[in-house]
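Reviewer 2 asked us to include a model.

Predict the structure of this chain.
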Amino acid sequence: MTANKYEPIQEIILEITTGSKRKDATDDAVILDIGGHSWELDLPKYDDFERGKTDRYELAVPEGMDSSWFRFLCFKKKGDLQRDDEWLLAKVKLTINSKVVYEKDNLNALLKVDRNRWCAPDFSYGKAGE
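Predicted model (structure tokens):
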């Protein structure tokens, strides 16, 4: 039998950039979902997801987390479904244990009432151990 191929996780840093046009920002909560865990992205005393800004999150790592938890990389915008509030995800950079495992520019992923979730179609981190 082979040894566990999954990487133990000590550090997760997520950087996301909001689009720069007038209606690209949101005040709604955004959730990062990796398959084995989810985080609500919110920096205390800071206005997240403002147009043209890059927000950096040092995410809490649950005990025992390894790369097998990362089955996909998705963002979900929460909020009032009656309100016409959109968010344009322009760029994503995910760094795990000081190594960039996913980075995409010019995503132009629009999350809104009827399409409030975006998943990275080419995300593969964590699947090597399968």
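Strands lie at 12-18, 30-35, 38-41, 54-59, 70-77, 87-96, 99-104, 109-111, 117-119. The longest strand covers residues 87-96. We have added this to the supplementary material.
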